[in-house]
Amino acid sequence: MAGIVVIFDFDKTIIDMDSDNWVVDELGANDLFNQLLSTMPWNSLMDRMMKELHAQGKTIEDIEEVLKRVPIHPRIVPAIKSAYALGCDLRVVSDANVFFIETILKHLEIRDCFSEINTNPGYVDEEGRLQILPYVDFQTSPHGCSLCPPNMCKGLIVERIQASMAKEGKKRIIYLGDGIGDFCPSLKLREGDFVMPRKDFPAWNLIKENKTLVKADVHEWTDGEELEHILLQLINAITIEESQLLSVECKFHTMSKASHGPFPRPLPVPY
């Protein structure tokens, strides 16, 4: 099973909400958020909102408590634990931020299931305010992808993961996501990989409209129960396929060795 890398988006994939919207709504800052929405990139807006919430007296503990009650389908955590138990390498690629994601995953007791979290940095400064930074500094080093938001190209992250897989001997990717930003990484997947877009969400619509550009097999899902069923079904199918290939290779080597017969005895050395 070490040959399978499962990549999860976070918002509306692992959790059933957008974590940014959830925190802003629950802490009563939705009106200000909507006023500023058209004035700056989303990632920069979230940093600004954390500054505003801090100025209003909201604490890191307040944010953590909100994050701990974010809606999640009851079958998501078992699906993640099962994939991990089967030996898959699980990773997150998300346009949320590391503070939100790690707070939720730790609360759900599944943080250790993931070998890597690729997302926007976030840290609590000396004043107790959460600062959120872009994954890519688009002012000085733009990523150059027209499909993705300025702060993050998930396609470039998937390409880096693919390069590391080649060194580690891992072969297959299963990618799960829902948003516009999940379309670009879907285009980076290869034949033999799988993409699982959430049905009737932006990534699913874009994949449907551009079928010829997607090399991976597409398996849509609607909720956590269907996600669990399809994900574990795909892992099982890959396991059977790899076992059969290994069996064929072993038989081939056995037959090849047998066809050569025993090694000839060496001739005596003349004196």
What features would you describe in this structure?
Its cofactor is Mg(2+). Substrate binds at residues 20, 95. This is Inorganic pyrophosphatase 1-like. Mg(2+) binds at residues 9, 11, 178. It is a single chain. Helix content is 45%, strand content 14%. It contains ten helices and eight strands. A six-stranded parallel β-sheet has the order 3-2-1-6-7-8, with helices on both faces.
What is shown here, in short?
The chain is α/β, with parallel strands linked by helices. It contains 10 helices and 8 strands. Keywords: Hydrolase, Magnesium, Metal-binding.
Task: Please describe the topology of this protein.
Blueprint: E1 4-8, H1 19-26, H2 30-36, H3 42-55, H4 60-68, H5 76-85, E2 89-97, H6 98-107, E3 114-120, E4 122-124, E5 130-132, H7 154-168, E6 172-177, H8 183-188, E7 194-197, H9 202-209, E8 217-218, H10 224-259
Parallel strand pairs: 1-2, 1-6, 2-3, 6-7, 7-8
Antiparallel strand pairs: 4-5
Which fold does the CATH topology of the domain at 4-16 and 73-119 and 138-240 refer to?
A: Rossmann fold
Silhouette: globular
Number of strands: 8
In DSSP terms (H or I, runs of 4 or more residues), the helix count works out at: 10
Fourth-tier CATH superfamily name of the domain at 4-16 and 73-119 and 138-240: HAD superfamily/HAD-like
User: Helix and strand string, N-terminal first?
Assistant: EHHHHHEHEEEHEHEHEH
**Low-pLDDT residue spans:** none
Q: Quote the beta fraction.
A: 5-15%
Mean pLDDT: 91
Largest sheet: 6 strands, parallel
Give the fraction of residues assigned to helices: 40-55%
The CATH class of the domain at 4-16 and 73-119 and 138-240 turns out to be Alpha Beta
Cα Rg: 23 Å
CATH architecture of the domain at 4-16 and 73-119 and 138-240: 3-Layer(aba) Sandwich
Within the largest sheet, what's the order of strands?
Answer: 3-2-1-6-7-8
The span between the termini is 58 Å
Query: Structural class, from secondary structure content?
Result: alpha/beta
Pfam family, one: Put_Phosphatase
Active site: 9 (nucleophile), 11 (proton donor)
Protein name: Inorganic pyrophosphatase 1-like
Binding site for substrate: 20, 95
